[in-house]
Amino acid sequence: MSVRPIKVAVFNRNFFRSAGGAESYSVSVAEGLAAHTDAAGAHDFEVHVWCQQADRTDPRITYHTVPVGSRRRWINQIWYATYTWWHTRRGYDIVHSHENTWHGNVQTAHVRPVRQHQLAGLSGAKRALRWLKIVTNPRLLFYVWVEAARHAPQKGRVVVAVSEAMRRETLVAFPKCDPNMPIIPPGVGTPNLQLAPREARQKLGVPIDRALMLFCGNDYGRKGLPAIMQAMKLQPSLPNLLVVGDPNQIPKFKEQAEQLGVEDRVHFLGRCSDMALAYRSADILVHPTLDDSFAMVVLEAMSYGLPVVVSGPSYCGISALLRDGKEAVLLDDPRDAQALAQAITEVLSSEELRGTLAQHGRTFAAERNWSKSVELYAELFKQMCSRKAEPLRTNQVANGR
């Protein structure tokens, strides 16, 4: 007797890799589950993606388009959460949310909770005043409420963290969460090393015969672009910089580059649908992030053999797994432009250090591929379904109700 596939709803508003790390994670996991088969070759999962934008055409996945509810992000988030709740409240075995939604029996936490961001380190009158700010601001109030709802203990619900740092942050903000919440970190795909660096640079229209630094992030400020441009001003010998990310932020930061006098050395590329072009064009990845639960871009750059300069564990989740001077050069303070310039110069001026970082970085990345992450989700989903009542397995009930 054949067993029907586990029916999975995936929530991700922007289902395309260049939208950010969480989105790329969602795409890789969904596509991996859709391809997952048992020993007889039968598909284990029937994957449905509920999104507002997608550039994927995987024939194994069913795509459901959610209308955009508002140009204001937080209002659109309310609309998206309500729409997906209504359409997936029945008929699915697993509802897997990568978004701020109050429903979904698997919630993957990608970013630091707003509650923790707003209240960390505050006490007494300062904490009370911050709470007053939150309750009088509809946007903040919604995010604090919906995060509490998605992390609330509920029978049949599992919260997944993408890193140990993310688990710690989640437990501080929501101490009633299961302290043994699973950690399923991002993976990395097979790097396109057949692409020649010169060809990649020609396709991007960037300088061909000089060293290039790479910055990648959709939130330019939070990911540390200002510090890199300040370092370029302090140290004019630093290479030109490729900036990949949200094109809507380009005008603001292009103006900053002009004010610093480095505009001729910064190349704003916008989003890059083929990140292999960026990685093969660059000589070094610089990621002085102020807040990253993991930083997939670091892992991907390592798979291409790029030396990496990145914020330390206090700011970046992946850095807790890295050794300074081995897999990467770690920054104590990513805001310190002078120290950043020195670290970049040290890497680029030492062939021995570059070789060490490239070798250890490749090894680190090779041990972390997407198939391992997908297997962890596949096992989790199967375990969750095996604990449910029979009506759920016959597709009559969803969300543990």
How are the strands of the largest sheet arranged?
5-3-1-6-7-8
Helical stretch tally? 16
Helix/strand order: EEHEEEHEEHHHEHHEHHEHEHEHEEHHHH
Instruction: Look at the structure and give the mean pLDDT.
Output: 92
Helical residue percent band: 40-55%
**Fraction in beta strands:** 5-15%
User: If you compute it from the alpha carbons, what radius of gyration comes out, rounded to the nearest whole angstrom?
Assistant: 22 Å
The profile of the biggest β sheet is: 6 strands, parallel
Topology, number of strands: 14
Quaternary organisation of the protein chains: single chain
Indicate the structural class: alpha/beta
Shape: globular
Structure characteristics:
401 residues; six-stranded parallel sheet; single chain; 42% helix; disordered C terminus; alpha/beta
Task: Tell me about this structure.
- This protein has 401 residues and is an alpha/beta fold.
- Helix content is 42%, strand content 15%.
- It is built from 16 helices and 14 strands.
- It starts with 5 loop residues before the first strand and ends in an 8-residue tail after the last helix.
